[in-house]
């Protein structure tokens, strides 16, 4: 997000006297540049010009010599000469006494003095204090202490505004140094949307301020004299043999040489101050000039040490195995799609000099001994730069601009502007032979009916407003029969490619506030859908059962399949792979909710929790078996049903799932003893609660299913509309190997349900049953059945046998052992009977028992256990 110093902005557009940062921010907001922050003056308080009257060096025991200085800071700020705290024999003029450790000044010099009450950058407050046997009543300031950077003359010490009496500036002691040094500048930070890349420069922001306020605007590029022709400079070869969509990686490359630069030349203070205000650290004259021009005009530049270059320079794609050590001292392995700047040391384009539009390499880096430089200003394809920057995680200032689009008309003007600034402040000479290689493609014209904006935005725009708005942003207009315009966008607006882009500009410049805010009348609500109600009911039921809802990211690594002991042919291994994952360790989308929920359980236990009882409902996805690419229907009309079906067939299959994990103690300990641990039965109870909340019931059957314990888990089924039972999930205790590898408490259990299928199995309308006022009768039954007979089948037979008198049937015990016999089990049910007609008699209860026993024997071969 660019920072805009107001004094810098005022060089390109007229700011009325007294304009505040708040008013500038408000003006920019009206044209779509949102304010991110406002930064006030760097220095506040009494910062004044002072003249050194007397300087006495005082050696200290530590070997250091400090100066006791009397400074005239003007009548308003001087103390009395007869200050009893610090006598001044022979001193006739009032002054201030200050202790200073610098030695680059002498009596008569003009300096900058911060008096008590001044606050310097870094929230450094100045106060009078006793030191080295004196009361230092202020501070004589250096450039770095004021946020101005080092002295341009290369001297190490405080700022000297003028040497000797009567020399230097026309300033007088007591003058305001804040205004003199430009330390009262305000800075506005703005947020630039991706389609407004030209606003990453003072040139672009000034233009937008002019659009908003009508203030006069001066294009700084128009003031740069350009040569009539170019040629004779270093040879440039554009050899991009792997063009991407939209053109080649580099369409224009300008190279300008400067020789004889003084390597000791310092960046002028005004430039260093502006760079600092804009959020960049001053480094050296050459680097600072390239950064300054980039911030001012928007064209990124790169400076090479010309003596380290071997012509010709070749722009090409990377080759297999190539590496580059960039300016941040990181050696990077290059990708074949990376666009490179290379030279011919060792052969044609053999040595890599930098990643085009992103960052240069250290082999030709400008150093403190550089005297000859070559300035590069190029036009790189936005998508190429963006992909390279993300691939190598290099979000540089240059890449930030190139990936949003840079004016292709800028390279020559920007390179010459930078060359002249370097010569102005560092000496040397600009090489009259320069290179401008490549072809600039003109912007494509757009046909715009004069009424297009009115039809799209919904309010009337006059033809004059349409024309004025487009001409204001720099478009060239051509009349087409009076009802339409052929609009050619300016070179700095690569975002203007279709008719709707122009309409947006018209609405923006005429004013968003002119568009009325009419909220549509909300239609009568129909409430939540059946699916929404089911989702909420299931989640609420689990929360009421004591579980905590969590949210886990849907990304997993391939190793999770082996951790959860999936078979090689398990369909849950068919995961969707992301092209641009947030983390290289997790490039896949989860196929089961437990894949991401179990790590959440482990993380909670690692943070000190003694038990875990969590749940989540979210989506899972599985890749289709087909490898066909997803077709992209035309946007001209609604896709046909066949086209939508073709798209659906290639997209990942997604479903809404509900999963829970429980493990460890089921509650806090007390004097009564330790609580029972969560177990496999609790997992099944969680599933039953979720099913009951959505209005259905589940059937449990024993089954083996990873990652569950083979003998302590089961599949969960519901009765579908066609009468067949369908598997909708699994529950039970996790496999001991899974528990150990993940790091969960012993016997941790889990459940996972297909929530969409569970909700679909519930009846659309649930009829309320009347409540009988007669007392119930309770009976218990224990039936011996074969091991593979599900308890749900026995329960169904009990309900059929007893009939309408069966109010509730509940399984409360399962027993296997020698007394039952091999291959058999005992299922014990508690049955509650009740009649709507009257109190049940012993005879009716006995008849119901007989019918129950007969029905179970007939249906599943069950025998009543004696």
Describe the structure.
Mean pLDDT is 88; it is low at 80-91. The strands form 11 sheets. Strands 29-32-33-37-36-35-34 form a 7-stranded mixed beta sheet. Strands 3, 4, 5, 6, 11 and 12 form a 6-stranded antiparallel beta sheet that branches. It has a 5-stranded mixed beta sheet with strand order 14-17-20-21-22. The chain folds into 6 domains: 3-41 and 185-218, Phenylalanyl-tRNA Synthetase, Chain B, domain 1 (2-Layer Sandwich), CATH 3.30.56; 47-181, Nucleic acid-binding proteins (OB fold (Dihydrolipoamide Acetyltransferase, E2P), Beta Barrel), CATH 2.40.50; 236-438, Phenylalanyl-tRNA Synthetase, Chain B, domain 3 (3-Layer(bba) Sandwich), CATH 3.50.40; 446-512, Phenylalanyl-tRNA Synthetase, Chain B, domain 1, CATH 3.30.56; 530-761, Bira Bifunctional Protein, Domain 2 (BirA Bifunctional Protein, domain 2); 777-864, Ferrodoxin-fold anticodon-binding domain (Alpha-Beta Plaits), CATH 3.30.70.380. The chain is built from 21 helices and 41 strands. It has 866 residues and is an alpha+beta fold. The radius of gyration is 40 Å and the shape is elongated. The N and C termini lie far apart (82 Å). Residues 41-172 form the TRNA-binding domain. It comes from Brachybacterium faecium (strain ATCC 43885 / DSM 4810 / JCM 11609 / LMG 19847 / NBRC 14762 / NCIMB 9860 / 6-10). Pfam families: B3_4, B5, FDX-ACB, tRNA_synthFbeta. It is an enzyme of class 6 (ligase).
């Amino acid at each position: 997000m660019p920072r805009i110093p107001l004094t810098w902005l005022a060089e390109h557009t007229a700011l009325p006297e007294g304009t505040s940062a708040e008013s500038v921010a408000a003006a920019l907001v009206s044209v779509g540049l949102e304010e991110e922050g406002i930064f006030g003056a760097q220095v506040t308080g009494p910062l004044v010009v002072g003249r050194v009257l007397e300087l006495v060096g005082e050696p200290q025991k530590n070997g250091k010599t400090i100066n006791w200085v009397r400074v005239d800071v003007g009548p308003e700020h001087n103390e009395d000469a007869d200050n009893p705290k610090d006598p001044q024999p022979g001193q006739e003029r009032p002054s201030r006494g200050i202790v200073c450790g610098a030695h680059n000044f002498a009596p008569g010099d003009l300096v900058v003095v911060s008096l008590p009450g001044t606050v310097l950058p870094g929230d450094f407050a100045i106060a009078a204090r006793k030191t080295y046997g004196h009361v230092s009543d202020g501070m004589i300031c250096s450039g770095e202490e004021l946020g101005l950077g080092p002295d341009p003359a290369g001297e190490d010490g405080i700022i000297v505004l003028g040497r000797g009496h009567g020399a230097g500036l026309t300033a007088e002691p007591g003058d305001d140094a804040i205004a003199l040094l430009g330390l009262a500048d305000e800075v506005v930070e703005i947020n630039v949307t991706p389609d407004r890349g030209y606003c990453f420069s003072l040139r672009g922001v000034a233009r937008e301020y002019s659009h908003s306020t009508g203030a006069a605007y001066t294009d700084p590029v128009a003031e740069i004299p350009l040569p009539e022709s170019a040629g004779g400079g270093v040879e440039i070869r554009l050899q991009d043999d792997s063009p991407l969509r939209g053109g080649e990686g580099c369409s224009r490359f300008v190279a300008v040489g400067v020789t004889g630069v003084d390597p000791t030349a310092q960046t002028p203070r005004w430039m260093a101050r502006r760079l600092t205000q804009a959020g960049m650290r001053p480094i050296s004259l050459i680097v600072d000039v390239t950064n300054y021009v980039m911030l001012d005009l928007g064209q990124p530049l790169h400076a090479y040490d010309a003596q380290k270059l071997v012509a010709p320079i070749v722009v090409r794609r990377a080759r297999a195995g190539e590496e580059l050590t960039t300016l941040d001292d990181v050696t990077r392995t290059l990708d074949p799609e990376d666009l490179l700047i290379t030279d011919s040391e060792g052969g044609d384009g053999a040595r890599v000099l930098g990643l085009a539009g992103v960052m240069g390499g250290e082999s030709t880096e400008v150093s403190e001994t550089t005297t000859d430089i070559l300035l590069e200003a190029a036009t790189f394809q936005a998508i190429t730069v963006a992909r390279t920057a993300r691939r190598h995680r290099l979000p540089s200032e240059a890449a930030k601009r190139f990936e949003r689009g840079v004016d292709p008309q800028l390279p020559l003007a920007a390179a010459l502007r930078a060359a002249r600034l370097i010569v102005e402040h560092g000496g040397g000479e600009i090489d009259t032979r320069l290179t401008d290689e490549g072809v600039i493609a003109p912007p494509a014209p757009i046909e715009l009916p004069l009424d297009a904006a009115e039809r799209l935005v919904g309010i009337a725009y006059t033809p004059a407003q349409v024309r004025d708005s487009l001409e204001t942003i720099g478009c060239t207009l051509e009349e087409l029969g009076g009802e339409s315009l052929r609009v050619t966008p300016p070179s700095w607006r690569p975002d203007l490619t279709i008719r709707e882009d122009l309409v947006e500009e018209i609405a923006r410049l005429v004013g968003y506030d002119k568009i009325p805010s009419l909220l549509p009348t909300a239609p009568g609500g129909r409430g939540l859908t059946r699916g929404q109600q089911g989702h909420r009911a299931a989640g609420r039921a689990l929360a009421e059962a004591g579980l905590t809802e969590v949210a886990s990211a849907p990304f997993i690594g391939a190793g999770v399949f082996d951790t959860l002991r999936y078979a090689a042919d398990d369909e849950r291994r068919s995961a969707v792979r992301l092209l641009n994952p947030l983390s290289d360790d997790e490039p896949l989308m989860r196929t089961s909710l437990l894949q991401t929920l179990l790590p959440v359980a482990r993380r909670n236990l690692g943070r000190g929790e003694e038990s875990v009882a969590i749940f989540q409902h979210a989506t899972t996805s599985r890749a289709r078996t087909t490898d066909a690419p997803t077709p992209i229907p035309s946007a001209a009309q609604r896709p046909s049903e066949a086209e939508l079906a073709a798209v659906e067939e290639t997209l990942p299959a997604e479903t809404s799932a509900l999963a829970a994990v429980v493990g460890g103690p089921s509650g806090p300990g007390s004097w009564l003893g330790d609580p029972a641990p969560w177990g496999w039965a609790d997992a099944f109870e969680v599933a039953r609660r979720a099913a009951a909340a959505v209005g259905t019931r589940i059937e449990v059957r024993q089954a083996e299913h990873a990652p569950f314990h083979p003998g302590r888990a089961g599949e969960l089924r519901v009765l579908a509309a066609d009468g067949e039972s369908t598997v909708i999930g699994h529950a039970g205790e996790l496999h001991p190997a899974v528990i150990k590898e993940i790091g969960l408490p012993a016997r941790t259990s889990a459940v996972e349900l297909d929530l969409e299928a569970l909700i679909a199995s519930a009846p659309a309308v649930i009829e309320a049953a009347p409540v009988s006022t007669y007392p119930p009768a309770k009976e218990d039954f224990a039936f011996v059945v074969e091991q593979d007979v599900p308890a749900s089948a026995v329960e169904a037979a009990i309900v059929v046998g007893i009939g309408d008198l069966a109010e509730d049937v509940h399984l409360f015990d399962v027993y296997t052992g020698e007394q039952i016999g091999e291959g058999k089990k005992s299922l014990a049910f508690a049955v509650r009977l009740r009649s709507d007609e009257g109190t049940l008699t012993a005879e009716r209860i006995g008849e119901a028992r007989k019918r129950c026993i007969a029905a179970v024997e007939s249906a599943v071969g069950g025998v009543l256990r004696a």
